[in-house]
Amino acid sequence: MKPIKTSFLFLYLIFSSYGLVCSDLNSQTYIDSLSHYSSLALKPEKSDDLFKAFEYFNSSYKKAINQKKYNAAINLLYYQSSIEYKKGAYEESEKTAVKGLNHIHEMNITPYTISIKKSFYNLLGLIYIEKFDKIKAIELYNKTIEFAESIEDTIKVYNNLSLVFKNHNEYNNAKDELLKAYALLPRTKDTLLKATIYDNLGYTYSKIDKVKGLTLMQKALSIRKFKQEKIKVYTSYNHLAKYFHNVNDTVQAIEYALKNYELANELNSSSYRLDALSLLVDLKRHEFVDQFKLLSDSISKVEKQELSRFMLVKYDYSEFKRKALESELEKEQQESKTIIAFLIALFILILSLFLYFVLKSKHKKDKIKEAYQKETELSKKVHDELANDMSDLMNFVENDIEVTQTKKSLLLDNIEDIYMRTRDISTETGSIDLVNFSESIKHLLMQHNKKDTKVVTNNINAIDWQNVSEHKKVVIYRCLQELLVNMKKHSKAKVVSVVFKNHNKKKEIRYVDDGVGFSPEEKKLNGLANVESRIKNIQGTFNFITSKGNGFKATLKFNN
Hints:
Elements (H helix, E strand, L loop, with lengths): L7 H11 L9 H15 L6 H18 L3 H17 L3 H16 L5 H20 L3 H13 L4 H17 L3 H14 L6 H18 L5 H14 L2 H17 L3 H18 L2 H13 L6 H26 L7 H78 L5 H24 L8 H11 L6 E4 L12 H22 L3 E9 L2 E8 L12 H11 L4 E6 L5 E8 L1
Parallel strand pairs: 1-2
Antiparallel strand pairs: 2-3, 3-5, 4-5
């Protein structure tokens, strides 16, 4: 829990630094009112203060727009956006700030418009910090540097840039921005600004290196105590308590946390008290747990009520506009019906697309299974009929036919070659044990592990084959088979490596051999085309690298 919001103290710096003066409305009453409500916005003492200030700025803005007093209007929008930011209404705050910038873009460039544009950029940066939009926040602060009119402005921008990185736990980047600010400190007389940089740099150092940073934080505390800035002293106590907790010095951590709590009570702020109690609970001071829970529930309820009040004021929710609201309600109901009809149509479309892709996937699976079935049947037929006939023919030539021995040997060699090729076809299209698939793969690799060619592999079970569907197993087996057959026929490889890898849902098989390779421009083997076609059928990918004399490397990738 952080008091008010992450960057309240830095928002306070923006308010006090840029002290926006509205020159368009000259009445003393207006100036006094603006001063009063600005003070409520800067240092709210009661839970109602921010609401009262917002209500005043909102109504004054409408008057200023009606009177076409745009300088006053954008000033009042700035205060509205700032209060919305403090209350955590970040979307509303961003819209209000953008509205103010749009007014500025329509006006002539003056020192006043440049100054308030810079203020809006700073505020938007703080909003994007809270929304965890790092890119936008950095972009805005870099723009703000271009408008910096003083060394103090530049220091504050670097400080705010550090907050962006700190919010994303990028403490080294935060440190770099703070060191830029620290290097500029000799050129400013603003001791409180120096204390802010000392404290933030020290706290950031402590996140990177536990030993570093303490001296800077203590120096900041000393300055803040001397200046009697209780809110800033509170921040120092908070950082020091967290520092000592981080270095396991529980005694000093609790000492600063208790000082933190005492000061929160002095400030009479519920959000500061809740932050201080949260720190004590983190430090195992269990006697504060009940207070923390009670205050947390109370603040949540109040914050919701206050935010609702802000939204009501924002959109002029009042009794005399009841009819307009009813009309708006009817419009919203009609819009709701339209949205529901759209959602139903969208659901039907999504369902139709889902069914289309399911059926398409099923069709591909069926095609793969059908091809596997035909291959298996062909294998059986080749083995049972053709291979057996070839074996009988060999026996007949060897034992019964009367020809010269030389011709007989030549004929037997030719028949044996045909027989071996027939047996290879039978093997290559044979059935696969899909239940014990890792054993099937191992057997396939061992078949090609010959006297002149060594096949090595890592753990085949690196891939959980139980979670791979059967039609994909068939494809993977045939792809590996094609690669090994190509190697056997063409590569003259001495060593073949097959590596199995698992990257969560993505599975990978890497094939490497030290064969003669080939030039893809000159020749792309039919086997590789088959591999590519097969793997695409299961939404996988196949890539290979080869050249003459440099072996062959291939990668198969697929999902579960």
